[in-house]
Structures are given as C-alpha cells and as structure tokens.
Protein: Alpha-glucuronidase
Organism: Actinoplanes derwentensis
Amino acid sequence: AFRAIGARRVLVLGDGMLVETVREEITVACARFGGQVRHRQDQAGERFDLVLALTGALPAMPTAADAGHPFLGSDAAIATWQYGWRGAPEALGGEGFVLTRREEVTVVLADEPRGLLYGLFEVVRLGESAFGSGLGAAIHRPAMRLRMINHWDNVDAHPVMGQVERGYAGGSLFWQDGLPRRDLARVQAYGRLLAACGINAATVNNVNVHRAETHLLTDRLGEVAAIARVLRPYGVRVHLSVNFAAPIVLGALATADPLDPAVRDWWASATRRVYEAIPDFGGYVVKADSEGQPGPFAYGRSHAEGADMLADAVAPFGGVVHWRAFVYNHRQDWRDRSTDRARAAYDHFVPLDGRFRDNVIVQVKHGPMDFQVREPVSPVIAAMPATRVAVEVQATQEYTGQQRHICYLGPLWSSVLRFAPHGPDGSTVADIVAGGGGFVAVSNAGADHFWTGHPLAQANLYAAGRLAWQPTADPTALLDEWIGLTFNPATGDDAEPVRRTLHLLMDDSWRTYEQYTAPLGIGFMVRPGHHYGPDVDGYEYTPWGTYHFADRDGVGVDRTRASGTGFTGQYPEPWSQIYESLDDCPDELLLFFHHVGFRHVLHNGSTVIQHIYDTHFAGAERVAEMRQQWHELDGLVDPALFTRVVALLEEQVRSAEEWRDQINTYFFRKSGVPDAKGRPIY
Ligand code: BDP
C-alpha cells in the first residue's frame, strides 16, 4: 500500500519522534519502490510530488523581496497553503491534518507530529488517487479523542482462559508463559498497524487482573514501560488494567477501601512511580465488582467513590480512569424472574451521574447484555449527561464466530454509533461518546501470523479504529479501504477480483451470522464456558442471567413495563414506547423485549417460528455459497492466506449447519409447528 508513495519524491519537514516515524516509513517505502525522501529542499526550484510538513517547520512567508527564496518561495502554491493554515491553527488540533493538492504537489500539513503521522496513513490509504487531480482540499480530524484497544492478555497463561482471554489469534503479543516477549519487533509492527487504523491508546493486560498481572503496576512495571517505548513512536499511549485490591495484594494493606487515607496514599505513590517510568502513561482501566473482581462494594462504597479515588491518583499527571459499567449479579437465582441482567448497568450507574471526577470515563458495553450478535443499544449511554461515557465493542469475536467464522462487524458498530437515543433529531451515540470518553474495542489481535487468526478478521480491527476516527463512515466503504490496503498488486494479489469477492463474502457476513445463530435478539444460545457453537439450553438454568424462556407456547424475555422486568423504562422516548409496544418493536429485537407465541406475526409477514426456520436455512445455505466464492480466489491471493481461509470456511459451513439443525429442531420440538416449506427438521 506504500507503493504510490515510495515511487515518488517526498519532502518531510519538521522535528520530533513521530515526524521521524513518518520519515522512516517513507524511507522504507522508497527503498522498496524507488522514490526519494528529503528532509529539506536543497536547490531552489526543486520540485516534490509529496510534501508532509509541520506548520511550525515551514519557513516564513516569502515576500516580494524574496523572489529568489531558495525554499518554498519558488513554489507559491505551498506558501499559500502555509499562509492559509497559519491563519486558523486551531482548526487542526493535535491529531488533525490538511490534505490538499495544487500544481501537482500533494501536501499534508499538521500542527503536531501526530497529525502528520495520520496524514501519512491517509495518503497511503488513497494510494495513487492521492496524486491525482481529483484530490480536493480537506481537513481531517478525529471525531473522538480517545480511540482505544483493550487487550485481554494474561501474563501467566490462565488454566481455563489461556494466554489471551477470549483470544482467537494465537498467543499474546506481549507475554508468553509468564514472561514478557523479548523481541518486541512484532509489537512495533503492531503499533504501526494501530496507527494506520487511527488507534491511539491501548491497554495491554486483561480486565480480569489475576495475580501475576496485578504486579504490572509495581515490580513488573518495566515490562509495561518496554511496550510503551515501542508503541510511542506510533502515537499509541499505553494504559493498564488494574486490580482494585492492589493495595492488599501488593501493598500488604489490610483494606482497599477507597476512602481510607492509607489506601489513597498507596495509589498516589504507585501512580507516581508509573509516571516516572512512563511519562505519557494513559491511565487505568478497571473492572470492579464484576464477575468476581474486587471493588468498592466490599467496603460499602459506591463505584463513584472507587473511581474517584483512582482518578485523584492519576489527575496530577493528566491520566484518566476508564471505569467499566459491566456490573451485574452473575450468581442470580434463575427461578427469580424479578432480576434482569439487562437492567443492571443502568441501575448501578445512572444514579451516580454527576458524581464522577472529570477524568473518569464510564466505559459501557454497546448493549445491555454482553456483545451478542444483536442487542439494543445500552440505555446507559444516553442516561449520564453529566459523566464522560465511552462505548465498548468487542473486536475479538467471542460471540460472533471466534475468528473461525467470517463476521465483519463494521455494520453492527456503525448502527450503534448512529443510534439516536432521543429520536432522529437528537444526538447520536457517536456524538455522546465523542464529547466524553471515546470508543474502545476489545482487541482481536495476537501472535498469529495473520494477526487475527482468521485473516479476514483484520477488517474488524481496521473498522474499529476508523469508526472511532469517523463514526459516520460507511462500514462498507471502510471494508473497501481495508481490502485495498491488504490485498494489492504490491503483494502479488490480483486486486480487482479479490475486491469483488471479498465484498460478496464480507459485506453482509454479520447478518448472515445472525441468521444461522440466535434469532430475533434472543442471544446466548451458546455453549457455556467457551461460547462457541449452539447449546439451546446451555445457559437457561444457570446463575448468569442470560435466559430465553422458551416453552411450548413461545419464546423471548418480557422486559416491558406493563408485565415484564421494566427494562424498556430505562430508555428515553421515543424508544421506550417503541420497545414497549409489541406492534412497534423492530423484528430483530422482538425477543429481547417480548415473550411471544410461536405464531406471532412479525412485521415482515412471517410468523416467529417460520422466521426462525427460514433464516437458519438461508444462513447456512449462504455460508456454503461463501465457501464456493472464496475458491474463485485460488491463485489470486497469497497461497498461505488462501489455504487458511479454505480451512476456516470448512469449519464455518459445518458450524452453520450445526446451528441450523439444533436451533430449528429445538424450536420445532418445543412448538410442534412444522416448517411450512417441509424442509428437514429432526
Ligand atoms: C464477557 C467475557 C469474559 C469477560 C467479560 C468482561 O465472556 O471473558 O471477562 O465479558 O467484559 O463477554 O469483563
């Protein structure tokens, strides 16, 4: 993808670590593709094809007397741009840049080195078209200041969860069997990849902070500092997941009570040492009082008190605390219909709105449950106007095929970001989180050769970063960008047929996955523990709060105010009414909000039971087609990649059929209603 740049004459102006990164990138590209990179203009009148410059590094405006100015005076066009942007420097911000082209020179101008780096990657994305006459002038700035990746990496391989919790891409990029990886070249390449996607922050360790990982805060801090050193030149700041009980585990205190002065002191000094080692450290991420993790509840304190204590520790250094809202009772009595896991985050956090410090970000999963293939948008996001809120999505495909299935999640995340909680005229989720906490994706990358296990799952990492930068971007267009960057003639691929086929395979793959798995917003019909493949009643009588309530008459969770858990009441209008109403509730979320009979008629005219049958047959059939379509790329892409995807598609076909058969049979046996089309149901 660097081919277009590498073949040209490039001028890079400015100083600083990230400007060096830009120079280095271009130097490597030129060595490969035969261009030239310069640090300054040596001869008057020397022309370049591409100029990347910090505005502060541009020479003073040439005056008439400088007609023979040895530098840009000879190129009046560049001086004009310089003048133009000096006029409104605040327009660019710390990460923004201007990209424009006049008189056959493509120019990137940025006020800060980070902007120049992102400008470089924009030019890379555009390829040849960055050098065409069609390129108009535009200012690019990220919608969100925080565009973050969370790794769920363990230092010690966990006996059940392995090296990376919910990781489907080989081992951790950072640790192996309890030790840091010595060679960080891969981490450096990862930093480059993150920057190319627009991501600027990363936690390196699991939100479930086990014993060894707890030590990353203190005696193993050097390991984090080493990672930070490698990611820094790509504009990626390191954050750390911390154990709320660290003062007990590490500091030998008797308590982790957030109001205890000794505890506060302990965090203050531990944090000071962190900043001594990592001056640009981003801050802490905390999973507290959730799924067995310690938290403030043990001391009768609120989550605001817990979060604020840590916020005070990082505040002097400009750090932030991402405090996760994923708090619910995972030991509930399944016979008790009065508790509803979907309600939990709102019930815990909304009463605390306005009580968090300015540098606390409440990090909310995009749906009220847990990264299911289809959920409504979490009502928490719109309900805390006095709090900074971030939305968290899961790039690692825990519930969406575990990187064995093709499932491009861009359309799902885009629909979350575009959702307008107060109706079409109100602000969107993207607006809300852009004003506060930003966008967080749980990483899907690991030590695997293709980074993400399934090579096509890379598109999810890419889309996560790009949507954080520009939430209104069309996810199909982002996929197209990713295809162009990944499969191109420079890597020996035959680009056009590859592009066509990948769109066929990936554009709708999320909806296809939904079709053959859990219908109409029901979720969680997965095998307990590892969460791969169907298990119709796997979670039905467990303490996790994830039920579908199927019986002989119908299926779905009644979350209405009228007769159910009242969850619909957590939404503002118009959604509260829409979800409450059986008539208005969108089909795809029907069973999330309502318990209905199998013969209930959907908006699409089908009955619930017939829809379940139809989508499962259609989804599995579509996957078989996808397998065939992929085979058309034999010989057109890297053979190792081709073979990997062949094997994965075999598994996807098998798994989709398994889903189809088990789900259809289950609902047939429950309902006794035969398939109107007479297809085999067992
Ligand atoms: C669930 C995962 C679990 C995570 C948890 C979380 O199954 O491994 O620890 O989310 O987000 O989806 O904390």
Summary: The longest strand covers residues 388-394.
